[in-house]
């Protein structure tokens, strides 16, 4: 058995469905990435455009100077169900289990330990799970794991795009796999048609500033007014382009747990401490309490259910975060235009963001 075959078998035993090997050569997609940055498609994620981040993405060997091979691994996760009762919000499928940022590194380090034991020698390595600047989808394609689909996700013919990617940079000279050269999106446009904000670009990149995942997770400020209705009931992330993909309809697996939190209750009772207790083990922690409740207010405003008014009024009058109060004001106006509470709040509210929403809410209707 070759060392490459042994590594792939060991990776499979740890739960990885796919494992491929590629070289640390500079990525061919770097010019596209630089054009994406120059066009401002990365929105407020300034960390993506720092000189160091660009330099590292331009040459993976800068992450591990003696790197000779890169293992690229993929672990499937269950797709999401689309049902969400009124007063609740949808969570992206990948975020319904333990945070992969903590789960996958444990498995990668186990694989690395087993490799060192198997070889009986020291192996210099670096483990990556969104923890280092890599153009990982190109690495995955080069390692034979699939093609980069029109929806910008890596797609595998058997596992679709519901895949978590991870990498191990190694100083071992391994035989690389053949790149995945086929492209099976064809003329299909379903992901583009499913996206409510038209954020998917022709060159298979995203305008992050319009992507629901960015807006509800990475965006730390107010959500633009013209995009709030597109949020619909997505309180964290979005799976719409994946749900529309025919390749994902081939997956024979149970759906992920239908976790849909009660947003009305959360707007009234959720503290920073209880938020960490509930979501500290999951990717939802990335939104922080203020971002999560901002999103909750938008979802309730979109649902236009009068039963949500007590929770939204409580948030407007008592929440310590201006971001939450501002979006609660907007949501109240969607359910009950020119509600008296909006006028009353103007008498005591000093934050300019909240005041702007209150003034706009009083003019609605």
What's this, in brief?
By secondary structure, the protein is of the alpha+beta class. Helix content is 42%, strand content 9%. The protein is elongated and about 75 Å long.
Globular, elongated, flat, extended or rod-shaped: what is the shape? Answer: elongated
Number of domains: 2
Task: Give a count of the beta strands, DSSP E runs of length 2 or more.
Answer: 8
State the end-to-end distance: 73 Å
Sheet having the most strands: 4 strands, antiparallel
Residue-averaged pLDDT = 94
Helix content: 40-55%
- Structural class estimated from helices and strands: alpha+beta
- Spatial strand arrangement across the major sheet: 1-2-7-4
Low-confidence stretches: none
Q: How large is the count of helical segments?
A: 16
Beta-strand fraction estimate: 5-15%
**SSE order, one letter for each helix or strand:** HEHHEEHEHEEEHHHEHHHHHHHH
> Radius of gyration, rounded?
23 Å
List the defining traits of the structure above.
alpha+beta, two-stranded parallel ribbon, about 10% strand, 16 helices, Leucine-rich Repeat Variant, four-stranded antiparallel β-sheet, about 375 residues
Structure description:
By secondary structure, the chain is an alpha+beta fold. The protein folds into two domains: 1-260, no CATH class; 263-365, Leucine-rich Repeat Variant (Alpha Horseshoe), CATH 1.25.10. It has 16 helices and eight strands. The strands form three sheets. A four-stranded antiparallel β-sheet has the order 1-2-7-4, sandwiched between helices. It has a two-stranded parallel sheet with strand order 3-8. α10 (263-269) packs across α12 (288-303) and α12 (288-303) packs parallel to α14 (322-335).
